[in-house]
Prior knowledge:
Elements: E1 21-22, E2 38-45, E3 51-58, E4 61-65, E5 71-85, E6 90-94, E7 98-101, E8 107-122
Antiparallel strand pairs: 1-2, 2-3, 3-8, 4-8, 5-6, 5-7, 5-8
Amino acid sequence: MRMESKVYRMIPGGDPNSGLQPSNLTPQDAFTTGDRTELNHTFYATKDESVLSGVWECAPCREEIESYPVHEMMTVISGSVTLTNADGISDTFKAGDVFFIPKGTKCIWHITETLRKFYMIAS
């Protein structure tokens, strides 16, 4: 993870030398298939980690999120995720789509096809 002040190229495969590394942000009981793969590479983080930017991949899963913990802007690289808001309205995002979830949002996060995304998080 880099913390210097410079421009970063976001690479879909993560670090050019080591790729994506195992991550554990998703609860094990949220996975909806036998595949429990979750990978991440953080390209940039502030010292206090209040701002993070990187690439994340996760196998199909479904989580009911009472209050989204951060502000997050995402660009889908591959796969598919469907978000359902508190009013029951769903949107599906696929490769090339960019979307934003404000901190505190109540939603259902449902990855229907292994998702790889770029992310920019501000807490």
